[in-house]
Amino acid sequence: MQAPSALAHALRRIVGEKYVLTTPEALLVYAYDGSVDRSLPGLVVLPGSAEETVQVVRTVREAGWPLVPRGAGTGLSGGAVPLQGAVVLSLARLNRILEIDPDNMRAVVEPGVANLDISKAVQPYGLYYAPDPSSQKACTIGGNIAENAGGPHCLAYGVTTNHVLGLEVVLANGSRVWLGGKLQEEGGYDLRGIVIGSEGMLAVVTKIVVRLLPLPEAVKTLLAVFREIDQASSAVSAIIASGMVPSALEMLDRLTIEAVEPAVHAGYPKEAGAVLLVEVDGLREAVEVQGAQVEAICREMGAVEVRSAENPQERERLWAGRKGALGALGRLAPNYLLLDGVVPRTRIVEALRRIRAISEYYRLPIANVFHAGDGNLHPCILFDERDADQLRRAKEAGGAILKMCVELGGALSGEHGVGLEKQEYMPLYFTPEDLQAMAKLPQAFGSADFLNPGKVFPQGKVPTAFRPTTRLPADAII
Amino acid sequence: MTQPSLLQRPTLDKPFAGPDAPEEKDLYTCVHCGLCLTSCPTYLETGLETESPRGRIALMRAVYEGRLPLSPQVVRHWDLCLACRACEAACPSAVPYGRLIERTRAQVRRRLQRPLRLRLAEAVVFDHLLPFPSRLRTGMGLLRLYQRMGVQGVVRAVRLLRPFPTLASMDSLMPRLPDHFFTARGQVYTPRGTPRGRVALLSGCVMPLVHAPTMRACVRVLTHNGFEVVVPREQVCCGALHIHAGRLDGGRALARQNINAFLGCQPDAIIVASAGCGSAMKEYAHLLKDDPAYADKAHAFSQMVRDIHEFLVALPFTPPQAPLNITVTYQDPCHLAHAQRITQAPRRILQSIPGVRLVEMHNPSRCCGAAGSYQILQREMAERLGQAKLEDALSTGAQVLATANPGCALQLEAGARKRGLPLRVAYVIDLLDEAYRREASAPG
Q1: CATH 3.30.465.10 fits A97-214, yes or no
Q2: Taking CB atoms and an 8 Å limit, are A472 and B7 in contact across chains?
Q3: Mutation to test the A interface, candidates B6, B25, B33, most A Cβ within 10 Å
Q4: Minimal Cα distance from B69: which residue of A?
Q5: Per-window interface: A 328-367 vs B, CB < 8 A
Q6: Does the pLDDT at position B216 exceed 50?
Q7: Which of A130, A224, B362, B376 is packed most tightly, with the most Cβ within 10 A?
Q8: What is the DSSP string of A158-219?
Q9: Contacts of A476 in chain B (CB under 8 A)
Q10: A476, B7: Cβ pair inside 8 Å?
């Protein structure tokens, strides 16, 4: 392994003096992402072009250092946290929209472009980019690819992989190749699909061809208020059973509503046990009919109130509560542990009941704000990590919830990725053979132990996110 | 290179102390979700986490906990912050970032020796100039003389100030000063028509001098709408510049003087035309919460403060009848949009003027780089942001760039002047006043 000063020197010659960071204060702010884990990088480098990225990858590889690509650092599973003192490769400066092709409904963008900025840029053409993670204002498309990110509207439209046609990537050996391209179908192996969701462990993405959709003619957002969360869960099942696929179907429980209202004033009634946020879109006539249908079902299941937002401002306000929910939970406790387990839609009522029991057993509040339509739960365990016992209980409660999801026939992660947070839980869901098959990929890409090492696969440790902190004292919070 | 102690148990002194230290509960409200990043002008310009709100808070915490020494290298990142508070509006956890950066700056001032030149300049401005309206007036009077006698032209032509970049940038910001300043001398303006109430007007420090005509416009607009306007004599600078620079005690002294001056004349509301001042005055309650003699009065005072646009729209104001026939674009001053969360009122006023075509620019609420003394101290970043703002304004095809804050107005005027752009910078209130006056002078 080359000395850090020599590596820094070599990298500065590629990207310029300003964009290689080695000072303690700089390393400290690249030790975290949106998750609970943190670990200091060896240094941070920010290339300004795909060409520079190629040279950076080669140089770091030759110097014998591991490398971790990073977007905006909004991820929730520790994907961008550099282990082993890795070099952080921030793609924040690769933030250009290179091409908009409205006729073929696609755009070519760089990885550092914020998700929402794509939709804003193509809006004049009547188009948008469908996957909409709640952090879409800040999270980058590159990070979305690493995590195969979802979002509320993925119920009807699918996740990132359904909206990316091609990727230009830098492989571990420094060669630059295209996986997929500008066409929907190209033949050959779908290597594009393998890289999407690979959590930065296979290649560094430098260009992305995204698929765009026409903005729907009409959108209707409904907010249904329930006294009991079980009623809301039944309404979810009933809506799907009716044959409709709303573009979004989200649930917020009482605790979340309490956190959200004072923060964003979205107009959710504070006394509600749960609210459902349902969106239908499409042709104007169909939207009217479906909206009425959703309202009728919700009332039948016991909704005390159903409101609908017709204009963009009202809609934005209703959504503001959902999109800002996670951050707003920061008001209730200094820390939260956010999980991403999935259960079959038909088991939501039972899953929520068991989460309640886990909350009582571990004596920690757990808020639920989630993609009800596809059973993607986001239990959010509230705690204060300065209290060592609370931290221990939070992690154990998290483990208990993930086990429960798998027991109910679900999975560990819907959209946040595995990263550090869930790697030790992988054997709950995958057989050793499954994992071995997966582990062949980094070998095949030549990126094993180089790109984002130490993630996704179980390391035989106590689960990273749920072990008592040994690496960090309870009071080290950044 | 890896320094595990950065994440480990504290090893250093904890330099943040005393009543004006950043509050622990504020520091720990941040859950580092990163949603603030794309609202931050300096992050967008640099792409660096160190120049982001989340990064700056992480550094505050590290210093607070004694994991990172308080050094000029760390302070640099806080200094580059505009304190525009766009992150505060974007933050779902409601982290009071403005308060955190102000208090951090107060700690830095206490603990780190700044260069002598800077300390002297600051002492002159903050201790001997800003708190005294008469000295400011005299100083600006001299500057006006400097302009009128043609000295400024000579100085600029021979680039006399080139060795003094701070002075040079101050000189380049200076617009042609008005012939008559607006002076608070306790005057009372009588309302037109049926009286609707009595308001007290903040004149401020810089605005009544460099933008005196706008202060008169404020008076006319308020009296036009039936308000008696008092301009309390004993009022002083609102203290915002002190507070932003971390001189909280200086800010408190000014706040107390203003509380005495304004509460004494028992107005229905205290009207502020400058976004930065309005924001600071609405926060007097928090600033003086630990002062037993003033806490209650400060609370009452803050409750009465209204931004002039907010006040007019809530009335509602009388819509002007005469047309202006111009295309206008509006830039949101940070301390109006982010600190006071007022974005619609100024736009409603513009839209109420017949013949005004309001065209929105790209990113209207992104900081123009003025940010109080920032435009003098962080010239490079300020210029970059100012130019970007002018570009955005130009691409709307507007003839008038409307704003609501003296700092923004100065910065944008200077930028437009320097490039010889066909863009007039005006306050929203100037335009409303013009429409009212045109109406009064119209026949019939």
Answers
A1: yes
A2: yes
A3: B33
A4: A25
A5: 328-331, 334-336
A6: yes
A7: A224
A8: --GGGGEEEEEEE-TTS-EEEEE-SSS---S--HHHHHTTSTTSS-EEEEEEEE-EEPPSEE
A9: 7-9, 65, 67
A10: yes
**Beta carbons of A236 and A249 less than 8 angstroms apart:** yes
Q: Would you tell me the crossing angle of helices B406-419 and B275-282 to the nearest 10 degrees?
A: 160
A474 three-state secondary structure: coil
Contacts of residue B95 in chain A, CB cutoff 8 Å? 330
Q: How far is B43 from chain A (nearest CA, A)?
A: 10
Q: What letter does residue B183 receive in the DSSP assignment?
A: -
Question: Which residues face A38 on adjacent strands?
Answer: A32
Residues in B closer than 8 angstroms to A335, CB to CB, are 31
Domain B10-111 CATH superfamily: Alpha-helical ferredoxin (1.10.1060.10)
Instruction: Please state which of the four CATH numbers 3.40.605.10, 3.30.428.10, 3.30.70.2190, 3.40.50.720 is assigned to the domain occupying A218-328.
Output: 3.30.70.2190
What is the Cα–Cα distance from A187 to A202, expressed in whole angstroms?
21
Q: Locate the domains of chain B by residue range.
A: 10-111, 116-173, 188-313, 320-441
pLDDT of residue A474: 33
Query: How far apart, in whole angstroms, are the C-alpha atoms of residue A111 and residue A115?
Result: 10
Q: B2 pLDDT exceeds 80?
A: no
Kind of pairing, strands A43-45 and A87-90?
Answer: parallel
Instruction: Report the half-sphere exposure of B394 (CA within 13 A, side-chain side).
Output: 14
What is the topology classification, in CATH, of domain B188-313?
Rossmann fold (3.40.50)
> Residue B8 — very low, low, confident or very high, per pLDDT cuts 50/70/90?
low
CA distance A214 to A206: 26
Report the range out of A106-110, A182-186, A353-357, A474-478 with the highest average pLDDT: A106-110
Q: What would the DSSP string read from start to end of A31-53?
A: SB-SSS-B---SEEE--SSHHHH
Residue-wise pLDDT for A66-88, tens only, equals 999 999 999 999 999 999 999 99
B80 at interface of A, judged by CB pairs closer than 8 A: no
The CATH fold assigned to A4-90 is 3.30.43
Q: Which of A391-395, B257-261, B342-346 has the lowest mean pLDDT?
A: A391-395
ipTM given for this complex = 0.91
Q: Which residue is it, tokens 């391209």?
A: A181
- Where are chain A's structural domains? 4-90, 97-214, 218-328, 333-466
Top residue of B23, B29, B31 to mutate, by most chain A CBs within 10 Å, is B31
Residue B137 identity: R
pLDDT at B5: 67
